[in-house]
Amino acid sequence: MDENSSNERNYRKRRGIFFPLLLLTSGVLLLLSNFGYLPGGFWGFVELYWPVLLMAAGLDGLIRGNGITASVLIIGFGGVLLAGNLGYIEISAWELLTKAWPLILIGMGLDIIVGHRTVARSLIGLFIAFLLIAGLVWVADFSLPGSVKTQEFNQNYRQESSLILNLDRTAGSIKVKSGSKSDSLVKARLNLLKNETVEPVIQQNADSTEIDLEDNKTLFPGTSRPVQNLAWEIAVNPKPLLILKSKIAMGENNLDLRDLNVKELVCETAAGRSVIYVSETRDSRYRISGATGQISIHVPAGAPVKITAEKAIGALTVPSKYVRENGFYKSPAYKSGAPAIEISVELPIGAIQVVEYSTTL
Predict the structure, then answer these.
(1) What gap in Å lies between CA 220 and CA 163, rounded to an integer?
(2) What residues does the LiaF transmembrane domain cover (predicted)?
(3) Domain count across the chain
């Protein structure tokens, strides 16, 4: 009896390895980054390999005896997220988190029911954990048939001189690109869930049109489908002066504004990724923001560009020729008071990357 009690006390007093391992790994990576041996820098490495933290947390739970089912499930969850980041499965970390996070709650609940006091119960918990991981892999690789519907939208071009386009989604992705100089002002293919609806709102004046495409905001985050299946694909006529507002709570904003006559862009991605190809139009304003994730901005080479960036935790990279002055970055072609592309970026947690693209064919 006393021996059993002693073993149980020792079992409960096992120390975890998560925080010591986190400190050790962070120190090594920072040292490698400082000496230039880590491509992409420390935060670039973290951006890609952060799911390893989940795997370490799960291993820590096993060592501390916090429950086999939930701990093994967290390890598997981190492994699948890492595979997504490395491109081995066609799903990103953010997509998987929005879909499969309830599995962790299931694992925790089963751990409480099964417990870990006997070998038999531990084996049962381990078996359940592997079943849940198998379900996680299934969620990552497959889509349920019939769960996505398509809605077409087309607004005729009336020779408007300006267009205001407002896009607002709960989860998924928004893809915008230049369309043809045809009879269409805006042409869209909207891939939606069965419980997701969009009612376009159109306001027209003599020489301008405003279009609102907004979903019904009733989606529960765990019900979202993969981004590649839930994309809004929108083509915009390149002639009118464009004011674009694109907002998404969780997912991806992919806005290719090359060849478009952009006056202003407001892009908000609360959690996820924003990829912006900036138009060559000068005297334009871009406001790009998010809470956590990644922002990638492609600017035309040789253009006058001014960038103001606000970040708390994360990496910021700009072209090597850009100069920091008075709290902002400027390209070699930028001159104060002259028309320029002005970009404001805000991302408290994550990575901000600014690169140049060639404007010659």
Answers:
(1) 32
(2) 18-117
(3) 3
